[in-house]
Amino acid sequence: xxxxxxxxxxxxxxxxLCHLAERLRDKPVQTEMLRIGIIEKEGEMWTxxxxxxxxxxxxxxxxxxxxxxxxxxxxxxxxxxxxxxxSWLQTLREWGGSGxxxxxxxxxxxxxxxxxxxxxxxxxxxxxxxxxxxxxAVEELSRLGLASVTRIQGEAVGISGMxxxxxxxxxxxxxxxxxxxxxxxxxxxxxxPPQKAVQGSAVTGRPSHVYINDxxxxxxxxxxxxxxxxxxxxxDKTSANLxxxxxxxxxxxxxxxxxxxxxxxxxxxxxxxxxxxGLLPYKISEETVxxxxxxxxxxxxxxxxxxxxxxxxxxxxxxxxxxxxxNVADLRDLVGAAVNQxxxxxxxxxxxxxxxxxxxxxxxxxxRAGRDTRNAADELVDQGILTTVxxxxxxxxPFPSGSxxxxxxxxxxxxxxxxxxPLPFRITINCGGFEDLDYSSSRLINSLVSNRICKVNSTxxxxxxxxxxxxxxxxxxxxxxxxxxxxxxxxxxxxxxASRISGLAKLLAESLFxxxxxxxxxxxxxxxxxxxxxxxxxxxxSL
Length: 543
Ligand SMILES: Cc1cc2nc3c(=O)[nH]c(=O)nc-3n(C[C@H](O)[C@H](O)[C@H](O)COP(=O)(O)OP(=O)(O)OC[C@H]3O[C@@H](n4cnc5c(N)ncnc54)[C@H](O)[C@@H]3O)c2cc1C
Description:
Number of strands: 20
Structural class: alpha/beta
Bound molecules: flavin-adenine dinucleotide
CATH class of the domain at 201-281 and 369-430: Alpha Beta
Strand content: 15-25%
Radius of gyration: 24 Å
């Protein structure tokens, strides 16, 4: 029986464990050693999908370090980066390929000038850093006799348990064998929901067509290898066409990786992206843009306005900026400050509406990307390889000649007539975003919903949590599944951000500590609160 079982060992788990260790060490109150179990289905601990082996070594953060982490974590991380630079630069040179070599030469002068905050760093570095912190926390907890941390390899597939009793967690190993664990408290740190699959068996049932549903499963490197192998088997370049569904940050990352892999890039004839917006994330140029947000200014002097009015004003200003050819990425802080002020002026009911109904669309409108990643897409456009279509895929149909080629039937935005894209596709990559929680292919999520342990919130992208991140009796949630909550402390439309998860980890550690050692009345003691800071929007999931 565990005092705490954490499902998932990504950064949400690691950061929570580090904060909990700090809390236990600074205020030792317990007499017995706590038992903490960490259940992880993959073969790596502490890093999760973006910061470990499931991402390639050269994959970069979406934002520069200054925005990636808040203080004091940022300074600690920078200190670690400085101290270990010799070793990680060598790893990057040896294993990162041509993209990493270019990154080092483009960014060497910033590193030499100690301007770490300006860098869009390779993500695996944060994974190394977090892993070392988590390993220290585990060692310290054990050395001080505060807690033992046990790793449990397997997939949590179901959670049950009667009221007032410990939770039972069913864990399945690689061979399908199941066992049941019991825990007084369960933390769900399972990351984002699974990717929304495209059209099921129509593509996945055709082994000759390469369909990549999730680039990070089993790993980005394996996905790149599948692409390379499929291209090298083609007799000529005419059918070497790749379809990407969605234009989010993962799609942009796929382009970055392809551009820096000559064995793929030189064999590709065409890459076509279908997305609702028809736009890739805007490139951050760090330029000051002179622009007046007229619609937002007008709104703020109105006597009263609602969430829909605010969204309409944002759209109007952004559309005007686009029409003037301004870089929307560089308007982010200006728009963010105005939106924050406007939210504060609204009735609390409308604030909730904005967070839960409009926030995601606002983020989509402002999607941005760092220079290193975004430049790769521009290079592919310049070489005549990349085309972006503003439209939606209706279905994929086998090409008459067979051989794994598919044709894409799609509609253009605002036009109902179906069209067939002129090129056949040999490879499809799905970057179309995540499943809603009420129709999930995850057995764990389904079990939590059907056993009525957690409730899906109104956005269907997260579980309903209270001010202490509690989603049900003795069940807590941290990470992307906290999205779409609005309470006195937590107001987020997305939580796919390292800095946001770091803040929530602190809150969760407090909540767990309180539930372990304080009575339930005293438990709601902390004064922490977390509001959507619209100036720091970064969402890999938004289409
Ligand atoms: C590719 C990518 C790039 C990103 N880049 C950035 C960025 O540049 N900047 C930024 O701020 N944010 C970024 N994010 C967003 C954010 O930082 C991540 O979403 C964050 O890492 C989430 O951490 P997590 O621990 O909650 O989830 P994850 O990293 O997904 O970890 C969850 C872990 O749980 C395990 N797991 C899941 N289900 C089960 C189960 N049923 N049983 C057992 N184990 C299970 C998984 O194997 C995984 O190891 C990115 C996200 C992705 C996916």
